[in-house]
Amino acid sequence: MAEEAAVEGEAPKSKKPLIMAILAILVSIILMAGAIVGTLFASGFFEKKDKQAVDEKVAAAGGDSHGGGSKDGHGATAPATKASAPAVAPVPMATPSMAKFEVRYVELEKDLLANLTGSKKVMQVKVAIMTRYDDRVIANIKKHEFALRSVAMDVMRQIRAEDIDAADFRKRLAEKIRDEMNGTLQKLEDFGGIEEIVFTNFIVQ
Questions:
Q1: Binning pLDDT at 50, 70 and 90, where does residue 60 land?
Q2: Which helix (H) or strand (E) element contains residue 71?
Q3: Are 111 and 156 in contact (CB under 8 A)?
């Protein structure tokens, strides 16, 4: 009986080293886990994750608020496409500046000569062209002088002898020649620019 009591008394003593070993292992695991978590905090690991999550939410919200995706017929959201820039209509390089400058005159070198309709009379005029646009209008007038002379003489050929007696005859003739010349330049250069026709010599005989 004494021996049995001695054995039973030793049993609790043999369990203490085992419990201490388990506690030591648990403490080691906790310390290691704490060290790992502390290292991750120090390296900014969790901040990167949070920032990434916030960026994803902002991107998703931005896509919804700006029409980022459009739903197809099956209810799926199509990826957003970047809006294309509005097309700009090309401007011909030959078009003169619309800004007006000082008055300039270009006189055709030769007189314009034409027979009047239904009459033996002949009209002979010297023409100067006035413009306030840039040098390209002057260049166009000189470039197409033959065409401008032709349309001016076509207008003169339509004049009848009795038309000359009207008080505003020269004014109306100048306006008609101007309109025909501008129409010709418009077809050839996409811009007229002639503002007035001035007669520097006017003879009917």
A1: low
A2: strand 70-71
A3: no
Look at residue 156 and give its three-state secondary structure: helix
Express each pLDDT in 8-30 by its tens digit: 445 455 567 778 778 878 877 88
* Number of C-beta neighbours around residue 55 at 10 A: 10
Amino acid at 181: M
Residue 21 φ/ψ region, left for φ over 0, alpha for ψ in the -120 to 50 degree band, beta for the rest: alpha
CATH of domain 104-204: 3.30.479.30
- For 42, 60, 97, 173, the CA distances from 48, given in Å and listed in that order, are 12, 18, 58, 84
Query: What separation in angstroms does the CA of 169 have from each of 64, 129, 164, 183?
Result: 71, 18, 6, 21
Q: How many CB atoms lie within 10 A of CB 130?
A: 14
The reported pTM is: 0.52
Chain mean position to CA 116? 54
Q: Are 174 and 198 in contact (CB under 8 A)?
A: yes
